[in-house]
């Protein structure tokens, strides 16, 4: 007697299928473990030298700081800086050049750090780590968190963030991931807009989904690009995007967060006429599997 086998056969599932599925599960567990180890190794192996580069660049910037009217004279002689320059040559020019290089090292290493961090985040979202169990998350908290995370960028570009729509609604999922998705959309909305514009975030809920829409008055996206912007590293305008310091991974991360939640992200945009990105996430807890099986008489 093989109650499970009988049950499965009654459901039209043969033993062969079950065996193949079991092998698949083992293989996918193995792959998940390989990915997890990879993420941990890469984190350590790349983040450590990048952190060191940033510290070194900072030290070099401190050492080459020009003298201020009030502060102590930070001349190369006073600080003992020995960057470049032939003996007896014009040291101050060399120090200035060294300072410019240090600034670039700092800029590039910060960019590299962000790239590594976002690549790791994407790898985790693609299954390197199990998706945390969904929990109720207050959308008001998500909005407050987003405002916090985007405050500096918004202030630097003099972009106002207006929030409208329903308050006190709840979404189901992982709080940090949802805040990341909304913050990424708002960060983009700010970056791809002109100064003194407004980004409007609208929240709304129906029976099944919570919608968070992020509308900007920015540069918009051409129809030829709109289908591709969610691909990793894709950018609509290479030159312009590069000057924003972005990594090209922000929207890929948003897309994976949406799909891991059983939701989706959509965009409608006109070149030169602004864009609206809409994130749809579950408004209810996922169906209880046990209850579903029972109600199906299994
Ligand atoms: P990036 O780091 O380049 O911003 P993303 O994945 O976040 O990477 O976005 C991919 C591309 O989509 C951007 O390079 C940009 O061309 C386009 N894009 C994203 N959001 C907007 C927006 N709100 N308005 C106009 N273009 C956008």
From TrEMBL:
Residues 41-285 form the Histidine kinase domain. Residues 66-81 have a biased composition (Low complexity). Its EC number is 2.7.13.3. One of its GO terms (molecular function) is ATP binding. It catalyses: ATP + protein L-histidine = ADP + protein N-phospho-L-histidine. Its main location: membrane. Keywords: ATP-binding, Kinase, Nucleotide-binding, Phosphoprotein, Transferase, Two-component regulatory system. It is found in: Cell membrane. Residues 66-88 are annotated as: Disordered. The keyword Transferase applies. It comes from the Bacteria. This is Sensor-like histidine kinase SenX3. It comes from Micromonospora cathayae.
């Amino acid at each position: 007697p093989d109650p499970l086998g009988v049950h499965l056969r009654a459901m039209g599932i043969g033993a062969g299928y079950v065996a193949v599925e079991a092998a698949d599960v083992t293989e996918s567990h193995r792959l998940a473990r390989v990915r997890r180890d990879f993420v941990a190794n890469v984190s350590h192996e790349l983040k450590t030298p990048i952190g060191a580069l940033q510290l070194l660049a900072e030290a070099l910037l401190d050492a080459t700081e020009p003298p201020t009217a009030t502060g102590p004279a930070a001349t190369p002689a006073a600080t003992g800086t020995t960057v470049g320059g032939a003996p007896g040559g014009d040291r101050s020019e060399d120090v200035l050049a060294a300072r410019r290089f240090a600034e670039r090292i700092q800029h590039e290493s910060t960019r590299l750090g962000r790239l590594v961090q976002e690549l790791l985040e994407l790898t985790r979202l693609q299954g390197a780590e199990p998706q945390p169990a969904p929990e109720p998350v207050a959308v008001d908290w998500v909005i407050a968190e987003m405002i916090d995370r985007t405050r500096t960028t918004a202030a630097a570009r003099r972009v106002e963030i207006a929030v409208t729509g329903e308050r006190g609604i709840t979404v189901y999922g992982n709080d940090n991931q949802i805040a990341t998705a909304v913050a990424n959309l708002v960060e983009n909305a700010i970056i791809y807009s002109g100064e003194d514009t407004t980004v409007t975030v609208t929240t709304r809920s129906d029976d099944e989904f919570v919608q968070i829409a992020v509308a900007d008055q920015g540069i918009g996206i051409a129809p030829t690009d709109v289908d591709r912007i969610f691909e990793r590293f894709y950018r609509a305008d290479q030159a312009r995007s590069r000057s924003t310091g972005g990594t090209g991974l922000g929207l890929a991360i948003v897309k994976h967060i949406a799909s891991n939640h059983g939701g989706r992200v959509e965009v409608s945009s006109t070149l030169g006429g602004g864009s609206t990105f809409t994130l749809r996430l579950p408004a209810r807890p996922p169906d209880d599997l046990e209850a579903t099986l029972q109600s199906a008489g299994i």
